[in-house]
Amino acid sequence: MQAKAPFLIAAVSGRALAASARRAGHAVVVLDFFNDLDTRAFAKRSRACAGPGGFDARLLLQAAETLCPPKACAGLVYGAGFERRPGLLARLARGRRLYGNAPQTLRLVKDPARFFPLLKRLEIPHPETRLTPPSDREGWLLKQAGGAGGGHVVPAAEACRAGRGGYYQRRLNGRCCSALFLADGRGAYLVGFNEQRTADGSHSPSRYLYGGAVSHARLPARIRHEVEAILERLVPEAGLVGLNGLDFMVDEAGQVQVLEVNPRPPATVELYDADCRDSLFEWHLRACDGRLPRGALVRCVQVRAHAIVYAPVPVRVPPRLRWPRWCSDLPRGGLRIPAGAPVCTVHSRGPNPRSAWALAVRRKDVIRSALGAAAA
User: Where is the ATP-grasp domain (predicted)?
Assistant: First the structure.
């Protein structure tokens, strides 16, 4: 019996998608920035293709041609890493079935000059946003078009100038949340709500850097209905398909304010995958084919959290470090990791969001202590 062709996964980190594909019985080839130990274990073949500031286009395209050529590829699934480079995505997808949003959709939702006017036209609430600097920058954030992970966000008052691709957004106070959803280009299915957490400021280069998330965020039913109504308007206009994330604030008045759409499987996929019937990788494929779930998708209501451990100082990973079972994205022994770079991800579960996150924080401290003795 001939083996099934593998799917090609390309993302900053492909480990979570590869694990979900494994649950569904799919073979995968992974091209990402790190080629971590557990990514290699989930993948048929894998390779690191990072360059300065993103994918090395030459390495990425060559590795894809060598490890998963179009004629032997079941399809391309991509994650973070293409927000600023839809042209590279189009080149990678050439000859392959693309399971995910088309490059033109990326261009739409990641261009502030197009996305926020679209929100305004659809009467979707969002923070005041502008391409030119306000006269008084206090209370404003400077963001980078196509930025991901929050590391590109800085207080506008502390920035010299926006530079190419920069835009300004009024800072809001409130809860930073996200919605994980499936879309078929016409409608959406909400998988779950999450509360986003920023990285510990003492161990990260940016106060807005993504630090992790907690599933099953406790939000009023009214908020859920508002988000569902937003997706009902936004999905067909943007042509969103597959797994996506909607980042939003619940402001001090209790109103939903949309910050951005992540038009690809976001990091929060792994907070639900183990508790879903089938796997979210499988549902991503189905949604791209126009099929959304009917009825409950998540079977378990236990809260899950994950948190990223950033190196507090330059470290060398101990060659014989025994990683706890609640760690993932495991770097190889001997690897030098610069200060502020991600080391691994820790995971936790609990009866409620507060306890799940508290356990994740304690586990981050355990890893930091282990790394402290290995400072490079």
Answer: 217-289
Sign of the torsion formed by the C-alpha atoms of 106, 265, 299 and 293: positive
Neighbouring CB atoms inside 10 A of 1's CB total 3
pLDDT, tens digit (0-9, with 9 covering 90-100), for 219-244: 999 999 999 999 999 999 999 999 99
Residues 351 and 304 sit within 8 Å (Cβ to Cβ): no
Classify residue 372 by burial, with Cβ atoms within 10 Å: 0-12, 13-18, 19+: exposed
Longest CA–CA span in the chain (Å) reads: 68
Cα 184 from Cα 292, distance rounded (Å) = 7
Helix, strand, coil content of the chain in percent (nearest 5): 30, 30, 40
d(CA 62, CA 74): 18
Judge whether 327 and 346 are in contact, CB under 8 Å. Answer: yes
- Half-sphere exposure (Cβ direction) of 51: Cα atoms closer than 13 Å: 8
Look at residue 123 in the predicted model and tell me its pLDDT. 97
Question: Domains along the chain?
Answer: 7-99 (3.40.50.20), 107-288 (3.30.470.20), 303-372 (no CATH)
